[in-house]
Amino acid sequence: MLDSYNRNIYYLRLSLTQRCNLSCIYCDGSISENDFSKPELSLDSIKDILNEAGALGFKKLRLTGGEPLVREDIVDIVKVAAESKMFEHIGITTNGVNLAKYAVDLKNAGLSSINISLDTLDRDEFRAITNGNIDDVLAGIEAVKDLGLPIKINMVIFETNSEQEVELMKEFCDNNNLVLQKIRHFNLSEKKHHSQQFDRPPRCSACNRIRVLADGSVRPCLHSEYSIDPSKIGIRAALIEAISAKPLEGGALAEHQIGKIGG
């Protein structure tokens, strides 16, 4: 479907959970159970969302969070998406901590690609950024390297990063047949802007995505306060409204927790 600015919207980003097993500094720390306004989407609800999105012409799906691999039914979710035959591409973005456990099953379920968050190769710096153990992520990378899935490494780059750090990550990716995706560190409370130095966030003029959050609400833009509740109008109508409401450019948000909005 085309939005008001003639952009073809065919990419659905579906946040499966607000929960995460890390507490990265750019997600404003971990989110407690008290922050969850609604239960997570059930497998049946996810199936309904995917069927309606597919019928509207969405062809690309990305499963996000929070951390999607904290859901015990993650393999079933990928399988439901693949068996719908509606999506040409099914990707997942993960911190990699649980990836070694699920890698083979995700591939067999129909996953098309994996994005893995890894902001540094320095053990101490990794712990400072995420409060996690880099060995878990490296084990996840090793588990998927031989599965034939395209793998991107999402590196959030801060103003304090040196060129040498970025180059080390590029060498790591080149040596392991991975694609480095450089992401500019940004704050949702500030107006979105672009830079040629980074691969993400994408330019607003070429945006092709709609977001469904972990509570089932639909947003036309990561940098937009506009939110639609499908429980009142149905998921199909909510997706159509979100496409119509997509802004020309992203703005600044009062609510600025990436983990709540779906990354």
Protein model, in words:
- The chain is α/β, with parallel strands linked by helices and 263 residues long.
- It has a single domain, classed as TIM Barrel, CATH 3.20.20.
- The protein is 33% helix and 15% strand.
- It is built from 9 helices and 8 strands.
- The chain has helices at 43-56, 74-83, 99-109, 123-130, 134-145, 163-175, 230-233, 235-245, 258-261; strands spanning 11-15, 60-64, 89-94, 113-117, 151-157, 179-184, 209-212, 218-219.
- Strands 6-5-4-3-2-1-7-8 form an 8-stranded mixed beta sheet, covered by helices on one side.
- Helix 2 (74-83) links the parallel strand 2 and strand 3.
- It is globular, with a radius of gyration of 18 Å.
Question: What descriptors fit this protein?
Answer:
eight-stranded mixed sheet; TIM Barrel; 8 strands; alpha/beta; 9 helices; 263 residues
- For this structure, what is the CATH homologous superfamily? Aldolase class I
Low-confidence stretches: none
Main sheet characteristics = 8 strands, mixed
CATH architecture identity:
Alpha-Beta Barrel
Oligomeric state as shown: single chain
What is the topological layout?
Elements: E1 11-15, H1 43-56, E2 60-64, H2 74-83, E3 89-94, H3 99-109, E4 113-117, H4 123-130, H5 134-145, E5 151-157, H6 163-175, E6 179-184, E7 209-212, E8 218-219, H7 230-233, H8 235-245, H9 258-261
Parallel strand pairs: 1-2, 1-7, 2-3, 3-4, 4-5, 5-6
Antiparallel strand pairs: 7-8
